[in-house]
Amino acid sequence: MALFAAARRAAVSAAPLLLRASASSGANRGAALLRPLAAVAARPQPRAMPFSSAPATRPSSDAELLSVIESEIKYAEDCDDHDRVEEIPENFPFKITDEKGTNAVTLKRSYHGEQIEIVAHMPSLVTGDEPDHDRDDKEKGEEGDSDDDAGEKPPQSSVPLTVTITKGDGPVLEFTCTAYPDEVLIDSLSVSQPSGDDEADLIAYEGPDFNDLDENLQRAFHKYLELRGISPLTTNFLHEYMINKDSREYLLWLRKMKDYFKQ
């Protein structure tokens, strides 16, 4: 390559002199022939043959991303939650099924001929850190707003639950709930008889909004779930369990990303 570079510099520097000499003698045709030669000499040449068998190098962006992933893995491994084993409370009525790489756990039990299944999904975490613009908006609010908000509870982390209760081949009762550390809120409630017709099941009436029900009926359904084990004991345990599962699954996901970018 050094030889090619020297020849390229010589050709480029000689071209203007030859052009001036030919112009002074009126030989325009000679100058026209020299311009393509100078352009060829100045054109960058490939560093390797098109069919080179040299191994391809990893792009710098991939190497940088791999470094960041490894740093995040080390940080996650240093946390206390990812390898924590939750102690199941005494008299806990459910059997837990938890598979690695999934975003939910399943709890099952039998109760007086009923089959109860709870699917707990990944938690919605609240760290307590508010964005600056949200905090500024609250500080700029009117004085009357502070009185209205005084009775509101601070935001808490929560776990989405789907509770299914069946009796043999009969109808299916399904609750969708939001579980906080010490309480459960029912978001919706439906009862259905699976017909095998997906289209019919899709358009089946699922009942009114739960909050529109009579308050006595709402309390009765909350009591119904509590008797079947969906109680503060269960939800408090689930809250901690799902937060730790989220940490474990995040670390597993990072390791999969690392394996991919190392290839």
Automatic annotation (TrEMBL):
InterPro entries in the cross-refs: MAM33, MAM33_sf
Annotated region (Disordered), positions in chain: 121-162
Compositional bias per record (Basic and acidic residues), positions renumbered to this chain: 130-143
Coiled coil: none
Protein name in UniProt: Mitochondrial glycoprotein
High-level lineage: Eukaryota, Viridiplantae, Streptophyta, Embryophyta, Tracheophyta
